[in-house]
Amino acid sequence: QGPVVESGGGLVQPGGSLRLSCVTSGISFSLYDIAWYRQAPGDQRELVAAITVDSNTEYEASVKGRFTISRDNAKKTGYLQMNSLTPEDTAVYYCRTNLGRSGKYIYWGQGTQVTVSS
């Protein structure tokens, strides 16, 4: 198993919610920034949300107010709470970590599929 593993994806109806988890191992999690990216079929991978070691957060405009990124350093896990989901949110979601400040030691997860459909 790699150092970053996503989970929590699945099929949900429009307006529904999902919480994605980014479980890490073998790294000093509290020293790493966490980011969620997504990639829909035929589209470029885009940054969805990010949280730094200092818990500063940034969001892509279309998810602001609907998604919340968080981290639990004790559990070495990052989260993406996704509410009010729309079909446009359908994508493979990837977790990325990098050492804070320096940006070194980048790790990507394998991705988890989120499908929003009625």
Structure, explained:
This protein is mainly β and 118 residues long. It is 0% helix and 50% strand. Strands 2, 4, 5, 6, 9, 10 and 11 form a 7-stranded mixed sheet that branches. Strands 1-3-8-7 form a 4-stranded antiparallel sheet, with no helix packed on it. A hairpin with a 6-residue loop joins strand 4 and strand 5. It is globular.
Unreliable segments of 5+ consecutive residues: none
> What structural class is derived from the secondary structure elements?
mainly beta
* Shape summary: globular
Relative strand content: over 45%
Main beta-sheet annotation: 7 strands, mixed
Number of helices: 0
Counted beta strands: 11
Quaternary organisation: single chain
The whole-number mean of residue pLDDT values reads 97
Radius of gyration: 13 Å
Q: Ends: how far apart? A: 34 Å
* Helix coverage percent: under 10%
In short:
It is built from no helices and eleven strands. With 118 residues, it is mainly beta.
Supply the key terms.
118 residues; four-stranded antiparallel sheet
Task: Show the helix and strand layout.
Elements: E1 4-7, E2 10-12, E3 18-24, E4 32-39, E5 46-51, E6 57-59, E7 67-72, E8 77-82, E9 91-99, E10 107-108, E11 112-116
Parallel strand pairs: 2-11
Antiparallel strand pairs: 1-3, 3-8, 4-5, 4-9, 5-6, 7-8, 9-10, 9-11
